Amino acid sequence: MYQLNRIKGWQIYDYYQWILDKIRGYMPPYFNYSLLLCELHSIEFTWGIMNDENRAVDGVNLRHEYMDEQNVPDIFYHDSPCSVLEMMVGLALRVDREIMRQPGADNTYQWFWMMIDNLDLSRCTDEQFSAEYVRQQVAKWLGREFQRNGVGSPFPLKIRNCQDQRKQTIWAQMCGYLSENY
Questions:
Q1: At what angle do helices 53-70 and 84-94 cross, to 10 degrees?
Q2: Helices (DSSP H) in 23-169: which residue ranges?
Q3: Residue 153 is part of which domain span?
Q4: How many domains does the chain have?
Q5: What values do phi and psi take at 25, rounded to 5?
Q6: Rounded CA gap, 24 and 4, in Å?
Q7: Among 1, 63, 83, 112, which has the highest number of CB atoms less than 10 A from its own CB?
Q8: Helices (H), ranges, 23-107
Q9: How far is residue 22 from each of residues 52, 111, 127, 158, measured CA to CA in Å?
Q10: 112-157: pLDDT as tens digits
Q11: What are phi and psi of 83, to 5 degrees?
């Protein structure tokens, strides 16, 4: 059992490093956000609107992509819920691969860090990190306590007379944001 736990622990660590590679978490200027990224990975992604569970599936699918890519047996993370970090990276991957696709380019990291900026979390560098602030911002987002036009969420809209973004799925919010900005 000890050997299995050692393997499982290593795979979880390796998986986390793999996620960070997807968003360039080790490269300037993003290498200075290790505490933020770790905190986001410790927060469970929850949802209150039907179909937002699909975003959790995007996050969990990262695990399968990792296992396939790294040829790792399926023995870890079975019962763990999707983290906010996994959901955001999974959504950034989906945006890059399916919507904003540029042949030969991987801009996943740009979509991820755009969401971080829009959540007002880019201020949380390792030097100015506050776990309480991060959890508060994430709770406002997941609890749909942001403004009607999406300000306070990863996908704020510029127009004021829009559908109430608090009642839209994350996917619909993201599509509206991309339509307005790109």
A1: 80
A2: 34-42, 53-70, 84-94, 108-118, 131-142
A3: 2-181
A4: 1
A5: -65, -10
A6: 30
A7: 112
A8: 34-42, 53-70, 84-94
A9: 22, 11, 23, 29
A10: 999 999 999 999 999 999 999 999 999 999 999 999 999 999 999 9
A11: -90, 165
Closest CA to 138 of 88, 67, 73: 88
By three-state DSSP, how is residue 151 classified?
strand
Name the pTM for this structure.
Answer: 0.92
Place of tokens 């995007």: 58
What's the pLDDT tens digit per position in 65-104? 998 998 887 766 667 899 999 999 999 999 999 998 888 7
Tokens 């999707």 -> residue = 82
- The pair of structure tokens assigned to 28 is 């300037």
Torsion (CA) 171, 176, 180, 182 in degrees, nearest 10: 30
For the chain, how big is the Rg over CA atoms in Å?
Answer: 17
Q: Are 149 and 162 in contact (CB under 8 A)?
A: yes
Report in angstroms the alpha-carbon separations of 48 from 55, 82, 121, 144. Answer: 12, 15, 22, 9
Report the length, in residues, of the chain. 182
* Token pair of 147 as six digits: 């403004």
The two tokens of residue 96 are 């890059």
Place of tokens 């990863």: 154
